[in-house]
Amino acid sequence: TPFDVEPRNVLNRIWQALRQRGLFPVVAVELEFYLIDRQRDSEGDLQPPCAPGTQERNVQSQVYSLDNLNHFAGVLNDIDRLAQMQGLPADGAVAEASPGQFEVNLNHTDNVLQACDHALALKRLVRQVAENHNMHATFMAKPYEDYAGSGMHVHISMIDSAGRNLFAESDGADSALLKRALAGMIALMPASMA
In this model, does residue 66 exceed pLDDT 90? Predict the structure, then answer.
């Protein structure tokens, strides 16, 4: 018997109710994380890892740095390779704002339960790959006081049975449905973060 308040069952009920109303969500998840050195710094704090490609520790901003992607290519290539082996639709990685911070994106899907499964599996995969490279990985929102936080972004669109984007008017303007959806998310945000 399904447990009614288990998050997966709650999501499935909401998803099915939307589908019965002719509303079909399409989602994509982006996961931001830090790679962290296994050794603490002299103060006992977390520190970015030495880049495998250079054996140097970057402490500067690296947002969208191609060099930084190259320096961590072994880690990122392993994430990509293992994601493909596991059928996870990972599609690209970017260097984020802070040293050792990266983002891996999952492709859009109309199966919201599968999107959640893929996100959880990718988190486990990233942690394991980091361990294989003698590092730790954390998806914690703010592991460092002085560096940017990490998040999980969920891109959401809503289509009808004909594939039309219900969040946009024909001229590209925001639809009333999008405005109601945003208002609902804003209203529920405090409870969702409690």
Answer: no
Give the three-class secondary structure for 78: helix
Please tell me the distance from the alpha carbon of residue 146 to that of residue 162, in angstroms, as a whole number: 48
> Residue 96: which domain range?
7-163
Residue 190 in this model has a pLDDT that exceeds 90: yes
The answer to the question of residue 170 being in a domain is no
Rounded to a whole number of angstroms, the CA Rg of the chain reads 19
Residue type, position 125, single letter: L
- Report the CATH number at residue 146: 3.30.590.10
Q: Is 70 within a domain?
A: yes
Domain count, the chain: 1
Q: How far apart are CA 104 and CA 30, in angstroms?
A: 6
Q: pLDDT for 113-157, tens place per residue?
A: 999 999 999 999 999 999 999 999 999 999 999 999 999 999 999
The CA distance from 40 to 42, in Å, is 7
